[in-house]
Amino acid sequence: MVCSPRPFFFSTLLNHCLSLNSLKLIHAQLIKLSLCNTNTFLGNRCLDLYSKLGTIKDTLFAFDDIRHKNVFSWNIYMRVFIDFGDIKSARQVFDEMPERDVVSWNSIISGYSYNGFGYHALGVFAKMHTSGVTPSGHTYSIVLSLVPSVCHGMEIHGNMITKGVALSSVIVGNSLIDMYCKHGFVDYAFGVFLDMKQIDVISWNSLIAGCSKCGHKEIACDTFRKMRTTHYSPDAFTVSSVLTACSGFQDLPKGRQIFSLSIKSGFLSNTIVSSAVINMFSKCESVKDSFSVFDELGLWDSAVCNSMISTFTNHQLEENAMRVFVLSLKEHIKPTEFTLSCLLSCASLFLPDVHGTQLHCFVVKLGFERDPVVSSSLIDMYSKCGVCDAAKIIFDRTDIKDLVSWNSMIFGYTYNGKPEESIVLFEELLKTGPQPDEVTMNGVLLACVHGRLIDKGLSFFRSMENKYGVKPTATHLTWICEMMIHAGEVSEAMKILTTKIPNRLDGYLCKLILSCYEVQEDLELTELVAERLVKLEPMSLFAYMALVKAYEARGRWESVARVKKVMKDRNVAKVVGCSWIGVDGLFVFNENEVVHHGGEDVYSALRLLMQDIEDERSWV
Asked: Which positions does the entry assign to PPR repeats (predicted)?
């Protein structure tokens, strides 16, 4: 007589099942013995394995085969849809569940959170309170990461205290620290940290990273020093957070100390730490050290390469950035949206028709053209190249137009001599787009300056705070002053400059004021502005020539001689202008220059062309 295998035997087999084929063989045997549909435990075990090893179809079949489904069966069934990103079907399963436990609620809340529906997650959490199910520490940790304001977070914190889970769980305490730091309430985060019954390295990391992110860089470094005095050893995340803090207030000596610690602790091989080191040296204006770290590490990782490319682009070393990008491609590193955005930001500076077009093709190939960050960079690149039509096509094709895209297009029209189009686009933004910010108003006011739209510019300026909620900054006032100077209201402009923004009189405004006829008539004002320009740009010829012209008009020849002597003593000379063109390389032509790098061939070809022209004329 042959005995049938017991359920324990199949349970053991399922625990050691590692492939879909093995699972299907075991499942078939269970169906044959009618164990799968009658034994809920074995049915759930098969269902769980299908959710990890199989397809949705396999999982649905296993779920339907369970005759007596319990809450564990329904939770696995719902989790399958969440894992495949079908949150709508997951919510339908959740609503149909005959019984829900805390895992059911946590699964649907985390599903909404993971798929970017934070508002719906908070709505489900609110319903959870009325259902009679007590939230767990995991529930609170998810919800605290989604709260839109600190007031909402405080309400949840109060609810946690009444439930007795606020300070008893390390996970919940760390989530509270993150939440308070995220909204800028560092003192509350420290209060939670000090009241926690138990802390771990993540608690320290949350506090240090939170302080660093919300602008309290020195507090982050002080907290790190206190951590070193305890028995908690910093990990790679701790070191990267402190390096970010050092780069925030450009403390190079302290950054070098943390860099040495990362080498001593063996963290430098971690790509997060090495990227933070490169960024720290970059922010501290030590590009040579950034490249040394990058070169010596030899870590061809996406994050490390992005940091090095960003370093080069931020320091106007565009060719080096392109070189690193090409080398990363040879190492089979797939560029990210950040990589392409950095490169596009500098593509307009050299051979835009070649490099810019190649990068655009690369963006299309990788499917990033509709990404808001990349599309904004493309718009900015084409605008800087003077190809506004191409920029507008990309702008129109962008599905989700964020404010950066609108601002890039507005500035693109402005810088390419189309102020009217810039104003029209701004009015379209007010109707259909997001709320304008101070960058938007900078572009609009600059368009009014370039287009000599004085009345419209003043109207925008007067209504920007009440109507658009944008508080005027020094830059906005600068554009208003320029409009007034162009309109001949120099005295009003000077009043604004001297009262509201006394330290904002930059070199550009000084030259603009000195070029006005009204200022030239006022010698005292001319001398005052010229003196300011000399302090700002000691080697600029403009201030000296303005003074010479003013003194000559009044016959003050001794003053003219004195200014010219100062120019001679300071070796002030006319700045040599240049122009460049990119044809199979960059050719730069300085003013009055005959010989330059690669120029011999250019001038030889020019002489041959001139000879051919003369020959053609002689035959006419």
From this structure: 70-100, 101-135, 200-234, 402-436
Domain end residue (candidates: 344, 371, 398): 398
Same structural domain for residues 491 and 412? Answer: yes
Structural domain boundaries, residue 364: 300-398
Interval 92-119: pLDDT, tens: 888 888 888 888 888 899 888 888 888 8
Can you state the angle between helices 71-83 and 56-65, rounded to 10 degrees?
A: 170
**Domain membership flag for residue 66:** no
247, exposed or middle or buried, with CB in 10 Å at 0-12, 13-18, 19+?
Answer: buried
Identify whether the C-beta of residue 9 lies closer than 8 Å to the C-beta of residue 42. no
Do residues 282 and 252 make contact, with C-beta atoms less than 8 angstroms apart? no
Q: In this predicted model, what pLDDT tens digit does every residue of 276-314 receive, in sequence order?
A: 999 999 988 888 999 998 988 887 888 899 899 999 988
Q: Which pLDDT does position 308 carry in this prediction?
A: 92
Q: Which long-range contacts (CB under 8 A, 24 or more apart) does 15-23 make?
A: 17/49, 19/53, 20/53, 20/54, 20/58, 23/49, 23/50, 23/53, 23/54
DSSP state letters, 487-545 = TT-HHHHHHHHHHT-TT---HHHHHHHHTSHHHHH-HHHHHHHHHHHHHH-TT-HHHHH
Crossing angle of helices 40-53 and 20-32, in 10° steps, is: 160
